[in-house]
Amino acid sequence: MRVIQLPNPSRILCFAFYIIFTLLQQATAERELKFVAVVFRHGDRTPIVNFPTDLHKESEWPQGFGQLTKTGMQQLYELGQYVRKRYSNFLNSTYNRKEFYIQSTDYDRTIMSAQSYLSGLFPPTSSQIWNPELLWQPIPVHIVPKATDRRLHFPLSDCPRFDELQNETQTSSEFQSRIQPYMDFLQTMAVNTGLELNHLKILDNFQLWNTYDTLYCEGIHNYSLPVWATKDVVDKMEKLAELSLLSLFGVYKTEEKSRLQGGVLVNIILNSFKQAANSSRERKMEVYSAAV
Fold first, then answer.
1. In this structure, which CATH number among 3.40.50.1240, 2.40.100.20, 3.30.200.210, 3.40.50.880 belongs to the domain 2-156+261-290?
2. Collapsing DSSP states into helix, strand and coil, what is residue 246?
3. Which pLDDT tens digit goes with each residue over 110-135?
4. Distance CA 217, CA 47 (A)
């Protein structure tokens, strides 16, 4: 198995990521590509929520909160084009349901990202053109309801051991040594944002991450920011936002936490590799459009 971190297509923003897993099987003369699994995050989106003192309301965003933007659509379209070019000698030039499968989390932005990706990966040609004025074709994107999605919806909400590890993480010396230098800053942030200080201190509830993300989205889309959101403040918020995400899988007992969460998807991908290597299975590529 090889893991490939894809180079960023143009206009990719910092929170987008793409990973390709490939299965290369040793043939008699040279290695033969047998199977590809692709995992990507949605493209550029609007903020998920706002905070009490935010200058901007949901109505100011064309489709509201948490929605894929036109930039995000273009990003994933270009990613589909990139993968089409990279695997032009492996993947069928036209869509074949037996060779290809794509699944998305049950969010508008991830579903639309999957659709944008497919537009770049499988533009209809020859007999698949059904409307000469529209070089696009419908391709099924498979969805599992949030409540039962154990492949892509993170963090999983029904794992008592992971919840236990998260509580231990928040009180661990490793975590506390990282957050203590920011305590005065968090008090100032509570005043500036209107959020409860005790909630901001609990990083895995994502209140602080969401606040940073809201300011980040507003900034890159040229919305005015509050006067207190200076570069120094936003930089500190970014560090805490990174710590918030890191606390899910890192900082403390990282191997066990990663296995309990990401291990579910990794196991599914590894099983697909085994099937591709040991059988005449037709499927060549599986794609996952994920991240809430």
1. 3.40.50.1240
2. helix
3. 999 999 999 999 998 888 888 888 88
4. 6
